Write the structure tokens for this entry.
Amino acid sequence: MPLLEDGRLRPDPWASVDDDVPLPDGPVILGLEQLRREAPALARRNAPIGLALPPETAPAEVAPLLGLLSLVALRLPKAKDGRAFTQARALREYHGFTGEIRATGHVIPDHYAMLLRCGVSTVEVPEGADPAVWDACRRVVDIGYQAALSADAPLSLLRRRLRVA
Amino acid sequence: MNATVIPPFARTYRYDAIDREFLAERIAEFRGQVARRLAGDLTEDEFKPLRLMNGLYLQLHAYMLRVAIPYGVLNAPQLRQLAMIARRWDRGFGHFTTRQNIQFNWTKLEDVPEMLEALAEVDMHAIQTSGNCIRNVTTDEYAGASPDEVVDPRVYAEILRQWSTLHPEFTWLPRKFKFAITGSPSDRVASLVHDIGVAAKRNAEGEVGFEIHVGGGLGRTPLIGRRLYDFVPEAEFLGRMEAILRVYNALGERDNIYKARIKILVRDLGEEFRALVDAEYDRMPQQAYRLDPEIVAAIAAHFAPPPFARLEDRPLPQDPAFAAWARASVRPHKQPGYASVTISLKPIGGIPGDASASQMEAVADLAERHSFGEIRVSHVQNLVLPHVRQEDLHALWQGLAAHGLATPNIGLISDIIACPGMDYCALATARSIPVAQRISERFADLDRQHDIGECFINISGCINACGHHHVAHIGILGVDKRGEEVYQVTLGGSATNDAAIGELIGPAFGYDDIVDAIETIIRTHIAHRAPGERFVDTYRRIGAAPFKEALYAVA
């Protein structure tokens, strides 16, 4: 699937790997069970490791593993299922995760700015998606009324000018 | 443009260039969403939550646009603009709701962007009046006026409004989320049946803090909220709210819509819910969410008292018709010589909460003349002029009467809350409005209404309980039973400090029998009451048995 970063498509070096198949070379995104089971061996691996974190799993449950990871992929099972927003914020805010946070699943352009404000860095978009539409959607509202994780410029009262890139 | 000239002393939050820019951006965003839907780039499933978050519902006969009236506070030009919208794009009416909002029931999809622009001209919008997000925050319709107020709740309602507007984390919640906030020890906002109920209060040092109840609600699983905190300091207010919403967003039910409200999570987790919220708050970078006293002060300045004249309380004129109205509609004010006036939108035989365009304009004029240009919408679907000179009350009453707005039934049995029911709503299983109309006609006699005393009847046309029937003294729930509308009756509910869910009295009544059943209930109350006793107090004292016997005993 195409990958969107900062409003543009970019190549995706990561491979999502099902459990019980040999790991390919290069960066791999693993399921939670496999990561837990093989954590000691994976720690010695040279290529980057990512985790596909299920929507129902609290980041706190994988906190001890975060040191192994360069990427956490979050999933929206449906467009209206917003658990990933809270997972992203927890990863960034108090689990200290600084790697890539990727949004996958049923993501729509109208999520984009909000995902970025919650600490997400990249989005898996559908085949054929027009990055210009996604970019326009994230820019259309550039005022926020609450604290978030983007580098926003404070205005008066609770308001800030958004910097979503 | 005249419409944007705000009366100088109306205490509504005043938009500045930034707020207006935001609103324009939001309309542009919605326009883009509509265009993408029409181009097929958004599926109907994807578009639906987006249009709902802009207040647009598809109802039985037409689209309905629900316009936000933040915490029920309006100025006169805003009310005039609502009248203009009603006349131009609806059928000349608006419908005020229990969330202190207004609905236009006969909207055409293609008119919506223009309607939103007309709203923006007076700093209004339809943002988050629907959808699984934080909805319009409701508060006390007598805020800033009531003698028993200890904290002005409008300040914190506005802070909640801003904080929750397009919140990046809480726009895709499991289900809708409703706040109510009161600043008086006497709860007039039904805070115990909200997702979060906030009671602003002061400690011994005079500092503001918040008692927080969570997990109350109506619908098919009515529950009274649990007390989560006794006193959250002002600086921690938003941080604690963030923590509650995070726990809910992470753990709330996602698959079964009927178990998705926070009340179910709170009920099922019990004390563990508090532990989770505390753990979340303890881990958060609290400084980032601290509510700065300077921000509070800047927002509080919008709600500074209007320039009251130095007056003394005075006796009201003796005119009997005026006195009957004043007895029901006029309420004490904290400023000597002033009063708050509740305007009934419940004429006998009318549709509860409906106002015509010309009535809205009349109220706007009267507000400018008598109440610093300020109007409130109450959660029982009436309007309030908060600050009226006592010496003006008689003239105000005449002005209201000229427009059919002086029905003297506030707090009485014909002051009924009713949802739109099957006359408009796609979810309804029974009619509500005609039941309300027939009950108010049955009890039309004003002397009789006063004799019955305070009595709240609420009517819902389906189990979702938009008419708040569970917390009425007499609650009526219309349901469909094998293709026939029948009405269940609950007694003894309350939405105030003694909040309680009403108890089902017995088998349901048919559409033709429900008014007689209410009559029987009231006669039973009259027969058993102590002198001056309210219906709900009689019910609580004597229990259900006499009412059951009167309703169901074989003649």
About this structure: The longest helix of chain B spans residues 17-38. Chain B has three domains: 1-130+316-410, 145-300, 417-552.
